[in-house]
Amino acid sequence: MNVTIYTDGAARGNPDGPGGYGTVLQYVDSKGQLHERELAGGYYKTTNNRMELMAAIAGLEALIKPCHVTLYSDSAYLVNAFNQNWISGWVKKGWKRGKNEPVKNVDLWKRLLEAKKNHEVEFVWVKGHAGHPENERCDSLATHAADCGPWETDPAAE
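User: That's the sequence. What structure does it adopt?
Assistant: Structure tokens below.
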């Protein structure tokens, strides 16, 4: 099955207001009908990068059967980690970036690797507001989910 995931995460807002991460999964079933599933996590006092990782994790952990996934994100940090093989290098170096500089967010990177292992995942960077056709989808779908959620049991927050 082919699944498209749109993510957005931002540590914005305040504990009583909007913010958090949003993830929207879209897929077509065997009868040709389009389905959409929203997952959202509320505000967490953390960094934007962690929120982006949590959004991707939520989407991938929600998949039960192996899928071909196209994951759209405006996080260069998330997308480049896979597309430019940063994550492979980090694993080989024992989760270090330089000689002794540890990789930040190792807990979430490991969880993301586990979440994607049964799927064929293509990470696509949609540079924020730069005219990429899928950027508007991330903004309208995932940001809306983040600002309105949480909608479902949150698989990414602990």
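The chain has five helices and five strands.
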